[in-house]
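Subject: Protein entry, chain in single-letter code together with its fold tokens

Area: Proteins and the way their chains fold up in space.

Attached in line: The record itself begins immediately under this heading.
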Amino acid sequence: MKGNYKQNIRVGLPSENPFPFGWLIIGLLAFVVFSSIAHGQAVSKVESVGFTVSDMDKAIDFYTKVLSFEKVSETETFGTEFEHLSGVFGARVRIVRLKLGDEILELTEYLTGGGRPIPVDSRSNDKWFQHIAIIVSDMDQAFEVLRKNKVHFASTAPQILPKTIPNAAGIKAFYFKDFDNHVLEILQFPPDKGAAKWHETAKLGKLFLGIDHTAIVVGDSEESLKFYGDSLGLTIAGTSENFGTEQEHLNNVFGAKLHITGLRTKEEGIAVEFLEYLAPRDGKIFPHDTKSNDLWHWQTSFETDNAQELVNILTKKKYNFISSGLIEFSRNKIGFNKGFLARDSDGHAIRIIEK
């Protein structure tokens, strides 16, 4: 994928110096810097995925006892810096980070007044839809754990994707919801699919293994690639066109036909997946007045070594910001020194952090 910036770098040539090596070196360095920005060589990995919850104690209980996450940290913070980061005035929050395998899930509870609940009529093709895919070693056992804990189903039942979808054939998947109606997925790969680490970890006897990817509904995959590819530097790992009764009952959307694009970062970790509904095309748009304390707020956090460059890139491309620019923390209260929140072309929140 190529960036959209045009390179137009001129190197001065003083007439009295026929061999202007100093200027040439400066010009070449400038070209390298601007070229890397233009091609979005910006983020190294997905550092975490997170969302807003209504009751942190209840959330910790669910994710640790039912899904086997491990609590690794807890922070309570407030003040001007976090207000400007989150875009919520007067915010005081409780942030808990949970780990499953090598991946991090970050939960945030707004103690100074939570936002709005997830709409009860939400469907999997609405633009605010996002989930994480939790890999399991045995779908039947994992499904029984969820049944015993009386989770709300989003899928009719676990589905095995058919041979008519070659790139996904044999994958077992099931959507369900936590107590706040955040959609989650459990997924089991057949031997010929998925990262090697999932097959190796499955041999260790654990049921819930880690987070493979986060999936977001997009209106136009090519438009979304301008953001995640050209600006952030993610690359396409694979695509699939999913349809049929199994896909319909997995998403619980009649007539569902999806173009799926998997994206990866430079470093291994949580991947990003586009879900573009080719049919039906009646998914609701992302609410324009969404705030970070609304319970449908998810944020995919990307790590970078130069957050200011990304502020400049996204500003020039006229993407919307949640934060009031790049926020620097005087004390490393929440795990990073600099960061900001912005929205992609559909409204999904991404957080860029610099440690």
About this structure: The longest strand covers residues 43-53. The radius of gyration is 22 Å. The chain has three domains: 1-39, 44-116+290-354, 130-279.
